[in-house]
Design a protein that fits this description.
alpha+beta, eight-stranded antiparallel beta sheet
């Protein structure tokens, strides 16, 4: 499955759409590596993206462990990542730094071609750990990915070719 998702990412990156369409980065960082802290950190070690702020910040108490940071993607877009890790539950939120896009006057980077959007949806299906349910509204699209121990909500706000924001909320039931 990861190979198929990697192929979809390659298609997204080779498209002729906007150079920084956030869908590729959302899939790569938030979906493929957002299910546990080790996966996220291994992505940083591979050089796929850089950490702009230290992560994780760990509580002095045993539980929950919490932390996060800001990740700079090769496209130049930034994503904020926050996590909480309990004995048997990992919870994370990964979101595009929308205000950073506005502050840098890069709102044109939120335009995605139809091909990029279709490749993103194919990547979600290929990378998911379970079934994908899609709900489309005038304001955007939400995807619910349900697996045996993983629940992931992926939200893309805005019209198909003119995005406003994107984020992913993940919950993973871990066993020790």
């Amino acid at each position: 499955m990861r190979f198929l998702a990697a192929a979809v990412i390659a298609i997204l990156m080779s498209g002729e759409g906007a150079a920084a369409c956030p869908l590729n980065d959302t899939l790569k960082l938030c979906v493929l590596n957002g299910q546990n802290l080790a996966a996220l950190q291994s992505g940083v070690e591979q050089g796929d993206w850089t950490v702009d702020e230290p992560s994780p910040v760990v509580n002095p108490t045993a539980e929950p462990r919490t932390g996060g940071g800001t990740y700079q993607m090769p496209s130049g877009l930034q994503f904020h990542f926050r996590f909480q890790e309990y004995r048997s539950l990992f919870s994370a939120t990964c979101a595009l730094n929308y205000f950073g896009v506005l502050a840098d006057n890069r709102s044109e980077d939120l335009r995605c071609s139809s091909a990029e959007f279709e490749a993103f949806e194919a990547g979600l299906a290929a990378a998911s750990v379970g079934s994908v349910t899609t709900e489309r509204k005038e304001s955007g699209t939400a995807y619910l990915i349900e697996g045996e121990n993983t629940w992931m909500k992926v939200v893309v706000v805005g019209k198909r070719n003119d995005l406003l924001n994107t984020w992913v909320e993940t919950s993973v039931l871990t066993r020790r």
